[in-house]
Amino acid sequence: MDLLFTNIGLLATPAGSAARKGKAQGEITLIENAAIGVLGDKIFYAGPAGQAPSAARVIDCGGRLVTPGLVDCHTHLVFGGWREKELSLKLAGVSYLDILKGGGGILNTVKYTRAATEAELTAKASGLLSEMLRHGTTTAECKSGYGLTLEDERKQLRVVKALQGTQPVDLVSTFLGAHAIPVDYAGNRSDYIRLVCEEMMPAVMKEGLAEYCDVFCETAVFNPEESALILERAKELGFGVKAHVDEIDPIGGAEMTAAAGCISAEHLIRASDRGIRDMAEKNVIAVLLPATSFYLDKPFARARKMIAEGVAVAVATDFNPGSSPSLNLQFPMNLACLRYRLTPAEVLTAVTLNAAAAIGRQESIGTLEPGKHADIVIWDAPNLAYILYRYGNNLVHTVVKNGKVFPVGI
Ligand code: NIG
Ligand code: FE
Predict the structure, then answer these.
(1) What ligand has the least distance to the C-alpha of 320?
(2) 410 pLDDT more than 80
(3) Nearest to residue 219, comparing CAs of 231, 227, 211, 210?
(4) Residue 100: C-alpha distances to residues 103, 112, 219, 220 (Å)
(5) How far apart are CA 337 and CA 240, in angstroms?
(6) What are 21-34's pLDDT values in tens digits?
(7) Alpha-carbon Rg of the chain, whole angstroms?
(8) CB contact at 8 A, 77 and 129
(9) CB 317 less than 6 A from any atom of ligand 1
(10) Quick one: which atom of ligand 1 is closest to the CA of 266?
(11) What is the pLDDT of residues 148-169, one digit of tens each?
(12) Which of the residues 26, 43, 101, 227 could staple to 217 if both were Cys, CB 3.0 to 4.6 A apart?
């Protein structure tokens, strides 16, 4: 064996290779005085220290908490510019959708992203990814949707492709051409939908630029019927499908994701009872984004109800320049505990195994078990409750990604 992590005070991990729902979301494996053995980029052993095999190199974890690497299953990583100028509008009480209707919001980021070169976007995203890694994220999903022309969407997606393998964080790419109606199609939404379905999606699929297709199903953006049409076409072309739904207004988005066969429904702040039941029945994973509720000053999604109804819950950052400008997944973890009232064990499952399942990676990541990728976080913390309680600090001590060790803390 290449590498042995010893003196793990507490190893905490969900188990298995399927999303965990209901009571099982809160049932995790806890082993005191544990060790993890790594061979190449995979876990070879994870269990009691006494039974661990020997290895060429030993890393003493100093009695710390060790968990799987965090999986951020919903980000808008690649974009030009920032939007701190919207802060004064927010403080003056202008709503998120009103900023968008006024040609700002997402459409502002579209302007900056179109103006940026591929090299500039790559350099910026690469810096953001190393910041993510330092906060414990070892895999991230990245959505396009700030180009809104064939060329600019491809440019964003090519950045993700270029960064896959040239920096440590593993990336999963999602096409979000249906993120907003661009200004030049304002009176002509059906033409834009046609462009997305008939030109952008086939090109993106042909060039292998994205695995999933997403749509922003919301008042004044894409309605549930339009969203279903877009996702239907995406499935025909071979994409997995997911959607931003019921973020601001309850318009039947959750129901739409269940009917459309989505792997995940994301946001769900205003999801209806019926929508939650439909999701449970069709095994749609709820990707909840509490930092967005926080930043937009919106209600928090009904996570406890979702768990009670048997929906697997994942939690992510929604990192983007408009509604969630923080890429630190520890903050949504804190909010998931303090605002959703998830237990520390449920939160851990939400940002590891369930998040992995929301992007189809449950077989290879999300738990500390032999055969899975050696994606590991060593925390400056003695137990799980501690990281959910000491919010506001980066409590990561060391990150291990595919067996490579990245020291973070002091
Ligand atoms: O998930 N809701 C739509 N998209 C993003 C926000 C994008 C933006 O404001 O730039 C979200 O919140
Ligand atoms: Fe989002």
Answers:
(1) 1
(2) no
(3) 227
(4) 5, 15, 11, 9
(5) 30
(6) 999 999 999 999 99
(7) 21
(8) yes
(9) no
(10) 1
(11) 999 999 999 999 999 999 999 9
(12) 227
3-state secondary structure of 287: strand
- The residue whose CA is least distant from atom 3 of ligand 1 is 216
User: Best mutation site among 78, 215, 246, 323 for ligand 1, i.e. most ligand atoms within 8 A of its Cβ?
Assistant: 323
Q: How many CB atoms lie within 10 A of CB 370?
A: 13
Calculate how far, in angstroms, residue 323's C-alpha sits from the geometric centre of ligand 1: 6
Strand residues in 248-315 grouped as ranges (E): 264-267, 285-288, 313-315
Residue partners of 332: CB distance under 8 A and separation at least 6: 289, 290, 291, 315, 316, 317, 351
- Measured in residues, the chain has a length of 410
Any ligand 1 atom below 6 A from CB of 216: yes
Among 10, 13, 57, residue whose Cα is nearest residue 35 = 10
Q: Specify the DSSP element, H or E, that contains 206.
A: helix 201-206
Give the Å distance between the CA of 108 and the centre of ligand 1: 12
**Full DSSP string of 18-40:** S---GGGGG--EEEEEEEEEEET
Q: State if pTM tops 0.70.
A: yes
Ligand 1 atom nearest 296 alpha carbon: 12
Q: Report the amino acid identity of residue 213.
A: C
* Nearest residue by C-alpha to atom 1 in ligand 1: 318
Q: Is 320 in the pocket of ligand 1 (CB under 6 A)?
A: yes
Residue 63 neighbours by CB distance under 10 Å: 12
Q: Is 113 in the pocket of ligand 1 (CB under 6 A)?
A: no
Alpha-carbon gap, residue 402 to 374, rounded angstroms: 5
Structure tokens at 82: 């920032």
Write down the residue that tokens 């269990």 correspond to: 47
